[in-house]
Amino acid sequence: MNPSPTTLLRPDLRGFAGYRSARSSMAGGDTWLNANESAWPNPADDDARVRRYPDPQPSALRALMATRYGCRPEQVLVGRGSDEGIDLLVRAFCRPGGDAVVVTPPTFGMYEVCARLHGARVVAVPLVDGERGFACDFDEVGNAALAAGARLVFLCSPGNPVGSRLSLAAIESLALRLRGRALVVVDEAYIEYSEGASAVSLIGRQRNVVVLRTLSKAHALAGARIGCVVADAELVEVLQRCQSPYPVPAPCAELACRALDDAAWSDTLGHIAMTVAERTRMGRAISTLPQVRRVYPSSANFLLVRFADAAAVLERLLGAGIVVRDMRGYPGLGDALRITIGTPDQNDRVIAQLAALEAVA
C-alpha cells in the first residue's frame, strides 16, 4: 500500500481550506473590480505590469519547471526560493510542541531554524566523516525518525556545506521504511552541479518523497527568490492552501520563465560545466598547500576545506577583499571554511592568497 502523504498532515489542518484570494477565484471578465487594486498604475511601472496581483501559481512557470525537472505541473508548487518550501512543510505537518523533524548535521541551517520557530522538536543524526567525505547513516536516520515519531526527515543532496551526494537507492529505501510515518524531503539546491538522477524520479513510486529545487544557484537568480516543491499532486494541493496568497511577484515569475527556456538553459549548461571544471582545478591546487588539512570531494559549486589555522586563512582572504563562508560554528567543522567556486580569475586570487599565506607562515 502506498498511502497519500496527506495522511501525515496535521489533524487540525485536514479540513483547512486556506485563504481564497481574489485572483485565485477569478472567472474571466474584462473589468476587474474584485481585488481592491488601484485603477491607475504607479508612475514607476511603465507598462503597468504590477498594478494587478500576480497569479498565485504562475501556470507558464509551473509548466517550464515540470519540463525541466521531469514531473507534471500539478506536482510543482512555486514559492519564494526553497526556503518557503521548508517552512511550509514544517507548518503543515508538524504540530507545535508535539511533532519532530530529523536533520543530518552539518547541513543547511534553515531546516532547524524553521522547526524551532514553529515549536517542533529537532532530532539530529550527524553525518559520518569518512575517507570519501561526509556520508549519511540511513539506518540511523530511519531509527531516529521512528523513535521520535518524526513527520519530516530533511536530507540535503548534494549536501550544504559538505558537498556530498546521497544515493537515490538509499533515499528510496528510507522512504519505503517511513511510508505512512514521515515525509522524506530531499533538498536538491545544488544538483545541477552533480551527476546522476534527481530524487524527483522517486515520487511516482514513493509518494512520501518531497524534493526542493531552486533557481538561486545554477540558474543565477538568487535575487529573484524563485524555488519550488516537487511532490505528490495531493500534497502540493495541501501545501498551496497553507501558502500566502501571492507568493511570486509577476516580474520575478517572468524572469524565471525566460531563465528556464531552451536558449537560457544552453548558456546555463556552459556555466555549470565551467564551474565543475574550476571546482576540480581549484581543489587540486589548494589540496597541496601545507595550511590545508583536507579538501572534501564536492558535487556542488563550492569546496569545504579544513585548515591548520582557519582564523588566519579567513583574515588573509578578507584582507584581500575575498569573502568566504566561515563554517567554524557548525558541528564538527571547527577548522573549516566553505569556498564558493567563482570565475577562473576569482579562483586564481584565492589560490594565490592561500599560497602567499604559506610562504610567510
From TrEMBL:
Domain Aminotransferase class I/classII large, first and last residues per copy: 38-353
Metabolic or biological pathway: Amino-acid biosynthesis; L-histidine biosynthesis; L-histidine from 5-phospho-alpha-D-ribose 1-diphosphate: step 7/9
InterPro entries linked: Aminotransferase_I/II_large (IPR004839), HisP_aminotrans (IPR005861), PyrdxlP-dep_Trfase (IPR015424), PyrdxlP-dep_Trfase_major (IPR015421), PyrdxlP-dep_Trfase_small (IPR015422)
Keywords: Amino-acid biosynthesis, Aminotransferase, Histidine biosynthesis, Pyridoxal phosphate, Transferase
Its EC number(s): 2.6.1.9
Coiled-coil intervals, chain numbering: none
N6-(pyridoxal phosphate)lysine sites (modified residues): 217
GO molecular function: histidinol-phosphate transaminase activity
Cofactor(s) it depends on: pyridoxal 5'-phosphate
Reactions that this protein is recorded to catalyse: L-histidinol phosphate + 2-oxoglutarate = 3-(imidazol-4-yl)-2-oxopropyl phosphate + L-glutamate
Signal peptide: none
Pfam families: Aminotran_1_2
Matching HAMAP family: HisC_aminotrans_2 (MF_01023)
Quaternary assembly: Homodimer.
Family membership noted in the UniProt record: Belongs to the class-II pyridoxal-phosphate-dependent aminotransferase family. Histidinol-phosphate aminotransferase subfamily.
Protein name listed in UniProt: Histidinol-phosphate aminotransferase
Originating organism: Novilysobacter luteus
Gene this chain is encoded by: hisC
